Amino acid sequence: MQWIFLGVAILMEVIATSTLKASEGFTKLIPSVVVILGYALSFYTFSFALKTIPLGIAYAIWAGIGIVLVSLSGIIIYKQRLDLPALLGILMIIAGVLIIRLFSKSLGK
To answer: Domain boundaries in the chain?
Structure first.
């Protein structure tokens, strides 16, 4: 169940962060509300994930997957481009998350 909470936290954070650009500095009402609610729900569900997942591990996975998904939303929604160094960096983040998830004994598998 803790992984579901972490997944929801990541999804809400990605929605909030992706909508942050559309809020135009919190001058647009609907995107601003989405940002505030998204971050609130993200932290709320993240707190439940932290009941059983170690803080550092949960945050690394949350941040790593969030970076990848927000980057993808920038490409898809905002038509932003990433150069080769940015793509390589994102691939390293993905590798780091996979290493933690697959091999870390800190997760208490």
So the answer is: 2-107
- DSSP three-state, residue 51: coil
Phi then psi dihedrals of residue 32, to 5 deg? -65, -40
Residue 42's contacts (CB-CB under 8 Å, 6 or more residues apart) are 9, 10, 12, 13, 16
Query: Would you give the end-to-end CA distance of the chain in angstroms?
Result: 14
Phi, psi of 29 (to 5 degrees): -60, -55
DSSP class of residue 106 equals G
Q: Would you state the pLDDT for residue 76? A: 96
Cβ–Cβ contacts within 10 Å for residue 65, how many? 21
Indicate if the pLDDT at residue 108 is higher than 70. Answer: no
Average pLDDT over residues 56-74: 93
> pTM higher than 0.85 for the full model?
yes
